[in-house]
């Protein structure tokens, strides 16, 4: 668990910066130990006041921090690193939440030997049910990795893996909520076409998704086993699954996630090539 006295600097007050800051406060972290800064001083001050944390210029906030969280858009990362670099002190962990920004890009723009962690969170972090994957660089000690893990654990679950898997993580959990929202949207529309009021169809689908996810998590059963529990021979579910297989839905999901992983790699390679 993250020590409530850990000094955390949030660089960026956008969606993910707000999400992680709010998660830290919900987890009981001291508001006085969370500082928020950004390129736009007025906006950063307003966001910090709204969240109830401390605001300070980057040059004042970063020195002495235990963790500096880079919660900026990928296109703003170079500028953010330029502000952070001269203010970093030895031992600070830099945690990047920007999609497609590889460790090599960050290492090249920070003082040599800086402990850097690359992370891929996802949008359910906004409701405390996020899934984040972190990849530390070789300079990180086990204690520094735990600091980075502790920051993101305030928004959900965290796993640690080598950076070479980050493109797959992006395709599966980073983009994953969009796939599920797409399925939910399609099921709701199906309910409407079958004569249900939209509000009823929405309630049925959302609770079904929540219940199914809870079963997966709490029973520990393989999804195939859970699916077969619903699939009575000659029944309605079998008829529906036959249609999905005939339309190659499983193959489409595989292709879609492979495309997302390729795109993630292309973006990362492009950042390195432009360095």
Which percent range describes the beta-strand content? 5-15%
Q: In whole angstroms, how far apart are the ends?
A: 36 Å
What structural class results from the helix and strand content? alpha/beta
**What's the main sheet like?**
8 strands, mixed
Count of individual beta strands: 8
- Envelope shape: elongated
Under CATH, the topology of the largest domain can be stated as Rossmann fold
The number of helical runs is: 12
CATH-derived architecture of the largest domain: 3-Layer(aba) Sandwich
Which spans of ≥5 residues are poorly predicted at pLDDT below 50? none
CATH superfamily of the largest domain: NAD(P)-binding Rossmann-like Domain
User: Which sequence of SSEs, written as H and E, runs from N to C?
Assistant: EHEHEHEHEHEEHEHHHHHH
| Name of the top-level CATH class of the largest domain | Alpha Beta
Counted up, domains total: 2
Family: Belongs to the pyrroline-5-carboxylate reductase family.
GO cellular component, one term: cytoplasm
Keywords: Amino-acid biosynthesis, Cytoplasm, NADP, Oxidoreductase, Proline biosynthesis
EC number: 1.5.1.2
Give a verbal description of the structure:
An 8-stranded mixed sheet has the order 3-2-1-4-5-6-7-8, with helices on both faces. It is 53% helix and 13% strand. The chain has 12 helices and 8 strands. It has 2 domains: 8-161, NAD(P)-binding Rossmann-like Domain (Rossmann fold, 3-Layer(aba) Sandwich), CATH 3.40.50.720; 174-263, ProC C-terminal domain-like fold. It is of the alpha/beta class. Helix 5 links the parallel strand 5 and strand 6 (115-120). The longest helix has 26 residues, at 249-274. The model has no long low-confidence stretch (mean pLDDT 94). Helix 8 crosses helix 9 (198-219). Residues 163-267 form the Pyrroline-5-carboxylate reductase dimerisation domain. It comes from Kytococcus aerolatus. It catalyses: L-proline + NAD(+) = (S)-1-pyrroline-5-carboxylate + NADH + 2 H(+); L-proline + NADP(+) = (S)-1-pyrroline-5-carboxylate + NADPH + 2 H(+). Residues 7-100 form the Pyrroline-5-carboxylate reductase catalytic N-terminal domain. Keywords: Amino-acid biosynthesis, Cytoplasm, NADP, Oxidoreductase, Proline biosynthesis.
């Amino acid at each position: 668990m993250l020590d409530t006295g850990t000094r955390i600097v949030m660089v960026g007050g956008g969606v993910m910066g707000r999400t992680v800051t709010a998660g830290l406060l919900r987890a009981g972290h001291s508001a006085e130990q969370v500082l928020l800064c950004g390129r736009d001083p007025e906006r950063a001050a307003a966001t910090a006041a709204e969240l109830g944390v401390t605001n300070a210029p980057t040059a004042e906030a970063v020195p002495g921090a235990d963790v500096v969280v880079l919660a900026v858009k990928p296109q703003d990362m170079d500028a953010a690193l330029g502000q952070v670099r001269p203010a970093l002190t030895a031992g600070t962990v830099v945690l990047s939440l920007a999609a497609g920004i590889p460790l090599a890009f960050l290492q090249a723009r920070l003082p040599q030997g800086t402990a850097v962690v690359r992370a891929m969170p996802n949008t359910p972090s906004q409701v405390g049910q996020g899934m984040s994957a972190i990849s530390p660089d070789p300079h990180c000690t086990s204690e520094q990795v735990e600091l980075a893990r502790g920051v993101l654990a305030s928004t959900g679950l965290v796993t640690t893996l080598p950076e070479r898997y980050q493109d797959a993580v992006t395709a599966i959990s980073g983009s994953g909520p969009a796939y599920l929202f797409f399925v939910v949207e399609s099921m709701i529309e199906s309910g409407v076409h079958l004569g249900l009021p939209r509000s009823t169809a929405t309630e049925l689908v959302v609770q079904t998704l929540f219940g199914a996810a809870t079963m997966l998590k709490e029973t520990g059963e393989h999804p195939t086993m859970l699916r077969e529990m619903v699939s009575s021979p000659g029944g309605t579910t079998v008829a529906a699954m036959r249609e999905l297989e005939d339309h190659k839905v499983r193959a489409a999901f595989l292709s879609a996630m492979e495309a997302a992983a390729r795109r993630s790699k292309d973006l990362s390679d492009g950042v390195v090539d432009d360095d």
